[in-house]
Structure formats: structure tokens, C-alpha cells
Amino acid sequence: MFYNVWSDLLFLLTVVQLAEFVPSKKNIDKLNKLLKNEGWGRLNYMQVKYHDNSCTRTSFSGDYIFIDPKRPNQSNNITKENMGKKYSMTNKLLGCVYANAVFEFILLSKSILDECDYEVHLANQRKRFQKRSYKEKCASGKILSVEPFQVNPKNYRKSFKLFYTLIELFEKGKNMFDYMSCALNFLIEPLIKNRTYCVLKKHIKSLVTSVIAIRDVKTTLQYEYPDDADVNINKFYQGLKKILNRQVRDGLSPLMEKYCIQLKDANAINLCDSLNQSSSMDAETVEEDETTDQPLEESDHAEVKLKIEKHVEKVVKEYFLDLGFQLV
Asked: What φ, ψ does residue 186 adopt, rounded to 5°?
């Protein structure tokens, strides 16, 4: 009797699981239409791990899942039998491509993050020199002690310029992160009820969470110039670094380690380490009179800003529009 009950239970569980995931013609047509865009065939720099006992292939890239419209009879077309597998492969590939793109955005921003941190240290050091000089002049009678100490406004020129450059960079990246989250959500939705892909769903959802968290970085701070400028810039810098580290650790690295073989310009561990490193330059060596009137260098910032602008444009064009997401 117990055997019969157990058999009936297994049968019911099997029926329920099968009922949860029924490949729909709508989802099949969507993926067929999507993968016929030539942009998929150009995603060859990224190699993704391939686990299939039926063949000897160990990795694949975009040209493997691309459906060439000029070859209507090719075996790459999406069918009821292979829909889950094809959606899984497409998710893994796009996940690796987007994770790599996010890393590149962070790495490009990091040079300004570091310089902003260093300039705040310098500004704080100059402030201490100025306070010490003020006290010495008060003691010698050169100025009246009733006069309040005032920070030289030029103290924070570089810090503020870098601060606003960071704001501008993250504002420019918002559309890119929007497109990423839309594409990832579109691809994972057909697999939501399929328990076979629960691990993949977890990684893609974590990646989406990270993309949205970076997109929603607060890029505005209210403060008074210049009295508490160093405090607010420090707060912005430290908060941003924590956000980036958290997303690298919890959202990007796990997916990359599990599915991605070949990354273009980034490494999760190295990036986490570099974000945690403080500037190697020694702010204690700065002299009061050698910094307040120094001209601001524009060339380095302009180059970084241009690289980020081109990166954002490339991601939107090659990894969203050329892949056909705006058409499905």
C-alpha cells in the first residue's frame, strides 16, 4: 500500500513539474526572431562554458547560437524540443557579455575615483596647514583671534571638479544599464517556471540586481561650499566604492566564474582588490603654497570621459540594438 501511495505521489510531482514549463509558440517565435539578428554572430570574443554530454564541444560563442536567415534549413532554429536549452545558452552568453561590459565601465571610472579620493586627502591636508598658520598668526598678533577661520576656496577646486566628473559619468551610463536589465529580464522570463535552470536563474537575477544597483547610484549630494565639501565628497566616494564592491562580489563574479571562460578586459578578483586599495601617493608631503593655485589638468579627464562615452555607445548599439531586443 505504501508503495502505491509513493508511486502516485511521484507521478503527481512529475505531472506538476511538466505542467510548470510548457514551451509556448510565442516564446519560440520570439527567440527565433531575436537570434536571426546578425549582432549575435559577431559576439565571438566571449567564450561561454558548454555542458552537453551529447557532443565534445566545451565552449560556445555568439556564432554558435546565431540563426543565419540566409540558411533557413539550418539546425539552429528554435523548436519545442530545444527551446529551454537555447534560452539557457542565450542567457549565459548575454550574461557574460553584460558582466564584462559592467566591469569595463567600473574600471574606466576607477581612475577618476582614485584621483578624487587623493584630492580630498590633499584638500584636508591643506586645510590643516591653513588652520595651523591661522593659529600661529593669531598667537603672534598678526590677525585678531576674533576673526573666524576660513578655508581657502581654491582648496577644493580639483576635488569638486572630479566630483562632478564622476556624477556626469554615472549619469551617462544610466541608459546603458536600463537596456541591460531589460534584455536580461526578457531572456530569463521564459525559464522562470522551469526548475532545470534554477541555478542559471539565480545568477541572471543577481546580475540584474547589480546592474540596477549601479544604475541607481545617487549622483546628487546637498552640501555647502566649501566648509563641509571634503566630508560630502568623501561620503560619495566611499559609498560608491562600497556599492561597486558589493555588486562585483555578489552579482558579477559568481556568474563570470561559473559560465564565462574568456573575459575581455576585466577580472573580478583584481577589480575587487583594486577598488579596496587606497592611493599610494602621500598626502602628508603636500605644502600649503604649492597646491591652491595649481591649474586643473583637463586632458586626462577628457580622455576617460571619451572612453566611457564610447563604451556606453558600443554597449547600447552592439549588445542591445544590433541583437534585436528593440524589435521583440
From this structure: -60, -45
Average pLDDT over residues 98-116: 87
pLDDT in tens, 59-70: 999 999 999 888
Answer whether residue 11 is part of any domain: no
**Shared-domain flag, residues 207 and 261:** yes
- Which runs of consecutive H residues, i.e. helices, occur in the chain? 2-20, 25-35, 62-65, 83-140, 157-172, 174-188, 198-215, 229-247, 253-259, 268-276, 299-316
List of residues 6+ apart from 248 with CB closer than 8 A: 103, 106, 268, 271, 272, 275
Left (φ > 0), alpha (ψ -120 to 50) or beta: where does 141 sit? left
The mean pLDDT of 14-35, rounded to a whole number, is 70
Same domain, 144 and 276: yes
What lies within 8 Å, CB to CB, of 83 at 6+ separation is 23, 27, 28, 31, 190
Q: How far apart, in whole angstroms, are the C-alpha atoms of residue 303 and residue 289?
A: 29
The pTM assigned to this predicted structure is 0.79
What are residue 103's phi and psi, to 5 degrees? -60, -45
